[in-house]
Amino acid sequence: MTHYLINHNCIYNEDSHEIKNTENAFTIKMTAMRARCLSFIIENAPNGIIEKEQLTTALWGSRGKYVSDANLTQLLYLIRKDLKTLGINSLFITIPRQGIKVNKQIPISPIEEKKNSFLLGRWRLVLIGMLTTSLLALGAVAEFIHIN
């Protein structure tokens, strides 16, 4: 999954369903459905207008045909409310009877993830363990020499 920088000051983490304001560390935990919707909107932003049918199919699958406009409207309202709490107003704009469109005035960019960060973290733990073991062994040797 990806992380996105929104409006130069908020990081959206798809994995944890969180949006964090980098200026004040305020974080909002979104529901899985809201996060899925926001991810779909961000990924399809370059395509222009995202039609209602596209959204409902992406979110509800084949049941999307039977989902009322009110469900989608409520979901988009809650996402807007979450974003507004973080200082992001009008990330997407409703196009009447068509769908939504991402506001080009608000920049969104993917954040490159460090692919080796997990391995580096593991190596640090191994090195710390080895260092600790070495220091303990040196302490034992020093204690042995001191006693004898």
Fold and architecture overview:
The chain is an alpha+beta fold. The protein folds into two domains: 3-111, Arc Repressor Mutant, subunit A, CATH 1.10.10; 114-148. It is 47% helix and 20% strand. The chain has helices spanning 32-43, 52-60, 69-85, 117-147; strands at residues 3-6, 10-13, 18-21, 27-29, 50-51, 92-95, 99-102, 108-111. The strands form two sheets. The chain has a five-stranded antiparallel β-sheet, with no helix packed on it. Strands 5-7-6 form a three-stranded antiparallel β-sheet.
Topology (elements, then pairings):
Blueprint: E1 3-6, E2 10-13, E3 18-21, E4 27-29, H1 32-43, E5 50-51, H2 52-60, H3 69-85, E6 92-95, E7 99-102, E8 108-111, H4 117-147
Helix pairs in contact: 1-3
GO molecular function, one term: DNA binding
Transmembrane segments: 125-147
Keywords: DNA-binding, Membrane, Transmembrane, Transmembrane helix
Strand order of the largest sheet: 4-3-2-1-8
Task: State which percent range the strand residues make up.
Answer: 15-25%
Uncertain residue ranges: none
Count of separate DSSP helical elements: 4
